[in-house]
Design goal:
It contains three helices and 21 strands. Helix 1 (2-20) packs across helix 2. By secondary structure, the protein is mainly β. The strands form five sheets. Strands 11, 12, 13, 14 and 15 form a five-stranded antiparallel beta sheet that branches. 10% of the residues lie in helices and 48% in strands. The protein has helices at 2-20, 22-30, 37-41; strands spanning 47-56, 59-62, 81-92, 95-104, 109-117, 124-130, 137-144, 147-153, 159-167, 171-180, 185-192, 195-201, 210-216, 224-225, 232-233, 246-248, 251-258, 266-276, 279-284, 304-312, 318-325. One of its GO terms (biological process) is xylan catabolic process. This is Glucosamine inositolphosphorylceramide transferase 1 N-terminal domain-containing protein. It comes from Microseira wollei NIES-4236. InterPro entries: GINT1_N (IPR056442), Glyco_hydro_beta-prop_sf (IPR023296), Glycosyl_Hydrlase_43_Enz (IPR052176).
């Protein structure tokens, strides 16, 4: 118990230093001062899911009428959940369906769970909807040609796997491997200029610093790696995807996790200014981070936030499911 309390004190200290001066924390880390305390930050974190709102896809805040977090481990009723994270939503008529990772304490792997809501304020957990022999997370759900698809993270299978709803929202069938041969983390698909595009992090040593880009004419491929890929190499601040890619006419926003000096600090945004099969350019959006941890270091997201799935409402405002840890 004393060690746990000491870890929490170290966690708060590191978070405070990071907020005051990331450069100072990086310098202290290079000296080796945090070799013991930084791993403690990602040891047994308590992950949960919340709802945020905003006037644009670049700035979000907690919804005033929502009591965050809206989904916690104890809400999961069919398995013993060690964490809930990586939420993605889809709205069908008047119902919101949220898919998210549940880390099953018994199987010691991630599985995909489902919750539903009529108003995004109150959510009701339903069940596990997808489980495999390998770890699943990041259930990127999307609609194409009136069919529901999902590309979860399946890094342990060393492939990017496409699933299709045989009976939405509870039954999902494996369609095909889109790309194989590496550890692929957080694959994020989007459609632009009559093509499919896909970002994915690929560093095999959990450094979270390599972002690759693929494209295809058809959803099932063949998928081709972009000639500029990896588009990010050796930078854990901006490489790992952090949720749904937003496409608004000719504007494309990709979200990225800041994974240094430790995993899941905050979410940053980049605007893709040039995208074709032969070219790629992007710039970081000004205005600091899209999601940051609670400024006090306490609360459900006091440790960090690392995921966002934004959706445009009919009135022009935005709503997003997010996650956080403490």
């Amino acid at each position: 118990m004393q060690d746990i309390k000491l870890d929490k004190i170290k966690n708060k200290l590191v978070l405070l230093i990071y907020k005051l001066s990331p450069e100072l924390l990086n310098w202290l880390d290079r000296l080796g001062l945090f070799k013991r305390s930084l791993p403690a930050l990602i040891k047994n974190p308590q992950w949960s899911i919340g709802i945020y709102v905003g006037q644009s896809p670049l700035k979000f805040m907690a919804a005033k009428n929502v009591k965050n977090p809206v989904i916690e481990c104890h809400d999961v009723s069919d398995v013993t959940a060690e964490l809930v994270a990586d939420p993605f939503m889809v709205k069908v008529e008047q119902t919101w369906y949220m898919f998210f990772e549940i880390y099953n304490q018994q199987t010691r792997k991630g599985e995909i769970g489902l919750a539903v809501s009529q108003d995004t304020v109150k959510w009701e957990y339903q069940q596990i909807v997808l489980a495999e022999k390998f770890h699943l997370s990041y259930p990127y759900v999307f609609v194409w040609m009136n069919e529901y698809y999902m590309i979860p993270e399946t890094g342990e299978a060393k492939s990017i796997r496409l699933y299709k709803a045989s009976k939405f929202p509870t039954h999902w069938t494996f369609v095909d491997n889109l790309v194989s041969g590496s550890v692929f983390l957080d694959p994020s698909i989007f459609r632009y200029d009559n093509r499919w595009w896909l970002f994915v992090e690929t560093n095999p040593y959990s450094k979270y610093d390599t972002l690759r880009l693929y494209y295809a004419d058809e959803l099932t491929g063949p998928w081709i790696e972009h000639p500029n890929s990896p588009i990010i190499n050796g930078n854990p601040h901006i490489a790992r995807p952090a949720g749904r890619v937003v496409v608004m006419h000719d504007r494309i926003i990709r979200y990225t996790q800041d994974c240094y000096p430790f995993y899941g600090i905050q979410v940053r945004a980049f605007e893709i200014t040039e995208l074709s099969p032969t070219s790629y350019q992007e710039r970081e959006v000004a205005g600091a981070s899209v999601l940051t941890p609670s400024p006090t270091g306490f609360g459900w997201n006091g440790g960090g936030m690392h995921h966002i799935d934004p959706h445009l409402n009919q009135d022009g405002t935005w709503i997003a499911c997010v996650d956080g840890w403490v």
